[in-house]
Each structure stands twice: as structure tokens, then as C-alpha cells.
Amino acid sequence: MRILRRLFTKPEARVALGLNSSFRTVGEAETALTLRGLSADALVAEAGRADLGSLLRAMAAKGNILMRGTTNSFALMPFVVGMYELQIARLSKELTADTASYMREGYGLELLTTGTAQTRIIPIGAAIRPEHRIADYDEFREIIRGAGGKIAVLDCVCRRGADLAGKPCKATERRELCMVFRDFADTVLREGWGRSLTEEAALELADLNQREGLVMRPSNEREPQFLCACCGDCCGLMAVIKAMKRPADFVATNHRATSRPDVCVACGACARICPMEAIVMDAQSERTGKAPRARVLKARCVGCGVCVGACKPGAIALERLPRRYEPPRNTEALLERLAATRPTLWRKARLGVGGLLGIPVRPHR
To answer: What CA–CA distances, in Å, run from 160 to 66, 89, 103?
Structure first.
């Protein structure tokens, strides 16, 4: 409730009841409010606005709802990724602390135990080989090129939050590194929360993110709204995934790391950079005399490929998983799939307990 009070006034919260995950015009939102027994005119007057349209636009300007300027329509967003990330202009130490508590107290696990994954991991460019026959939606260059020029960059809310908490990110000193596309880009640029990027500049930024060992995490769509550059240090969602005994069960990915003991020189670079602690260095065997080597814990590997970029001898590579996962086309399709695959309370409990105890689960279809 503290988070809701920080984001919404009372009339704004009631107006949000007239929206859902599909974009609605002002008239459609007013009709939905009427069906709920709420007067749009009364809420507008209480908020001190001229009309419902201006109230909705004000809510979008606060990052609480999403506005599609081409149709002057509005939609609700998830808290993560969505509302929280768009609070970058008015981020406070208190909101950061409340969000961290909310993630720990159950929201993080709720995000991971939906019927369809809400987060996806794609491999960094250095990890991709021609034989992977990688799909466009798994290749960051194609994601950027497919955005139709609607690209913006803004500060990472997780790293800004870590700064406010006095625990700055250890993975990078940069803050402006998260990219948004399509409706999110329009919103960020309209409200002045970030700056526009050309396709070339976006590709250069993605390359720089990868060179620093950051994980490429787009929204789980073939036409994603964002491309985060995450680390295991201060990213809230990555921290929740990492806390699972088997992180690989809780993300959508098409790849997994594998090691070549005959090439490994036991430098440990791959193990140090892995955000999921999915690589261990086996000790030297007294029985066989074998030297220590890197070994991939398959249940913990999410297929990000940062280990491949860190391995100079080439002892780590990515392999395609046997069953290819194809994400929904766009945000609307993702939300429809989430609704259609919503697990029962019993299954959610089973997934949560299984994730914490290390029991193999496959929550995402």
C-alpha cells in the first residue's frame, strides 16, 4: 500500500480501474468506470483536472500508466518491468526501499511463478556462433533494428536505487544503459526521462554493455519494449532469479553454457563473471591427478553468454537447448498468454517451494 500511495492519488487510483492491459481510448475508459459504478466527472473534479483525458495524460506523465500517442489511448503496466522503471525522474530512497522489501516479501517470487515467463535472457554477441542458427528475437542487433527507429536510453533504475541506498553497482560505473523501444521509447522521450538513440548509437551502446559483462534481458516478446543491461549485483529481478536453486527453470532462454575441460586453463574468469554462480572450479583430483577445471551447473545457467566473452582460451561455449522457446509477438500477446496460462494457487505454491528447495520445475510454457 505504501508503494501505491507514493505513485497514485486516490482519484488516480480509482481512474486506473477504468483501464486494463489493452489500450483504451478516453471514451472507453469512461465507459469502464461507469460500469464499475464510478463517475469520471467526479474523479476528474476531485483530481483538479479539466477532463478525463488530461487526468489520464497526467498519470502517464508520472509513469503510472502507458500512453500511446498515435491513438491517444492508455493502458495499465506491470509494476516491474513498467511503472517502477519509469519512476526514474522522481525516484526516492523511500520508494527504492519499499520496492526492495516488496520484492523480498513475495512479489519477486510471484513474478517467477506465472504460467509464462515475464523475463527473457538472450546471449551476448560474443557467444553466438553461426551453427546456433539464432532466431531474430534472440539476437540483440535484430531487436534494435526491428524497433523502427523508436529507440531511447535512460538511466537504470536499479543502479540509481543502489546509489540512493549507498551501495553503488560494482559491475559498471555507467548509469545510462537501459534501452526502450516503441511505446516505452515514446513515453520516455515525451516526458524527458531519457534521450533518443539512432540505430547505430544503440548498437554501440549494446556492444559496450556486453564488453562490461552485463546480461542482455529484453521483455519476453518478439517485439520487445525494452532491453535491460543487468548484473547480479544490483538488479532486483536478477537477484530473485539468482536466489532460486535452479534459476534456469525460471527464465525464458534458448541457450546454455557448456565447458571444454581439454581447453580450460582454470583461470576462473568465467566463474567470477557469471551472474548466477552457475560455474564452479572443480578441485584437482588426488586420485586421477586431473587439474582443476571449470564446470557448468546446468540448472543454474540462464544462457546469457557473459562467461563466453570472459574466457580467453575459448573453453566455454553456448549450446542451443533442444526445445526452442518462441516468445509472444508483443506486449498485448504476452499479457493474453499470461492470463491464459495463469497457474492455480496450488501450482504456484508448488513452483515457489520447488524453486527455493531446488526441486526441478518447469513453470513456463
So the answer is: 22, 10, 17
Topology of 254-320 in CATH?
Alpha-Beta Plaits (3.30.70)
Q: What is the mean pLDDT of residues 326-343?
A: 84
* H helix intervals, 221-316: 236-243, 269-273, 306-310
Provide long-range contacts, Cβ within 8 A and 24+ apart, for 290-296.
291/266, 292/266, 293/259, 293/261, 293/264, 293/266, 294/259, 294/261, 294/264, 294/266, 294/268, 294/270, 295/259, 296/256, 296/257, 296/258, 296/259
pLDDT digits over 239-269, tens only? 888 988 899 988 899 999 999 999 999 999 9
Put residue 88 in one of left, alpha, beta given phi > 0 → left and psi -120 to 50 → alpha: alpha
Average pLDDT, stretch 104-110?
Answer: 80
% of residues, the chain, pLDDT over 90: 68
Q: What does the pLDDT average to over 321-334?
A: 89
pLDDT recorded at residue 50: 97
Domain ranges of the chain: 2-76, 89-124+132-245, 254-320
Cα gap 238→275, rounded to integer Å:
8
pLDDT of 176 > 80? The answer is: yes
Give the CA distances from residue 230 to residues 178, 195, 245, 345, in Å, rounded to whole numbers and listed in that order.
9, 20, 20, 30
Q: Is 82 left (phi over 0), alpha (psi -120 to 50) or beta?
A: left
Residue 193, amino acid: W
Q: Which three cell numbers stand for residue 242?
A: 539468482
